[in-house]
Amino acid sequence: MQLSPVQTLPTRLGHRGIDVLPGVLVTAAIALVATGIGAIWPVLGSAVPAIVIGVLLSLLRPRAMVGHEQADARVQPGIAYSGKFLLQLAVVLLGVQLSIGAIAKVGLESLPIMLTTLVVCLLGAWGLGRMLRTERRLTTLIGVGTGICGASAIAAVSPVIGAAGAEIAYAVSTIFLFNILAVVLFPLIGHALNLDPHTFGLFAGTAVNDTSSVVAAAGVFSTAALGFAVVVKLVRTLMIIPISIGLSVMEARRSADGQPLTGRRIAKLVPWFLIGFVIVAIVNSTGVIPDGPREVLVHASVFLIAMALAGIGLSTDIPALRRAGWRPLALGGMLWILVTVTALATIAATAALRG
Q1: By C-alpha distance, which of 141, 186, 146 is closest to 162?
Q2: Contacts 24+ apart (CB under 8 A), 119-123
Q3: Nearest to 90 by CA among 280, 283, 315
């Protein structure tokens, strides 16, 4: 007797779970270590240690797995699953950090600075990327990572543009390097310019990429700047949605072979995880998620990103990283300076208009 597709679904799911479990356990173990490192050195967060550990292990794996191809084959499905599906699931859970109330309150003040820095950064990435002849997908990842919110933006955009593991690893590492410089230099810049805590919070929230680095930079400047800086940074995360949709349309047009992009086709291009991100943010805005479970979901999203980046690190093509050379790093540095100067100039201009 032949079973129907519905009857065989639990069996297929069970086999799928067994296939991915070994590799998922490997990425979870790396994420645990990375989380511990982030707890000791908060400025590092967990994303960067996770991808670095993954890359280092990928260098050791060929030697460690000599004569153990079967063991390597057992972990590969779970590593790929972590680097793709868990990455997308993490983006969905990022929505639990946002609420419509916070967006409305902070958005009116910060939106001009956010939009200006984002437009300047993306145009700069396009122009400078062409000048430096950096690879298109890597240019896009560094551009959105610098212009929006670091590793979270890279995580959201990488499946949309089909980025390779080496490109993701390079982009995350580049963004991290300039985040560290921001943590050191931005408080000094803020004090030199006599910025008040509120203004510095706006500056840090729009010009620093990763949440942990925003917390570090604002905390060094003043505890009064910290809360506002983090809220600005979280609202800035919303820019992931239009940018990802725009990139989906561009990728589809690039491969459309002259076929017109209708409204229905464009709607189908919106990734499921971005829809989930918006739904979770809306649900969180209603207040139905209690503080305790909400905090658990926030930590879960951070941990899933660490697992995903561990999987990407383990799958990284090391020769491709070497071939990328110095140009993407130079691109990241130029964009970081561009965003910093633009943020300060826009803040000064909006303050002058109000005054």
Answers
A1: 141
A2: 120/338, 120/339, 120/342, 121/146, 121/147, 121/335, 121/338, 121/339, 121/342, 122/147, 122/243
A3: 280
Whole-structure pTM value: 0.70
CB neighbour list of residue 316: distance below 8 Å, 6 or more residues apart:
54, 55, 58, 165, 166, 169
Q: What is the pLDDT of residues 110-148, one digit of tens each?
A: 888 888 999 999 999 999 999 999 999 999 999 999 998
* Sign of the torsion formed by the C-alpha atoms of 97, 102, 107 and 113: negative
| Cα–chain center distance at 137 | 15
37-93 per-position pLDDT tens digit: 988 887 677 877 888 898 888 877 654 444 445 556 788 888 888 877 887 788 788
Q: What whole-number distance in Å separates Cα of residue 142 and Cα of residue 68? A: 37
Cβ neighbors of 267 (< 8 A, separation 6 or more) are none
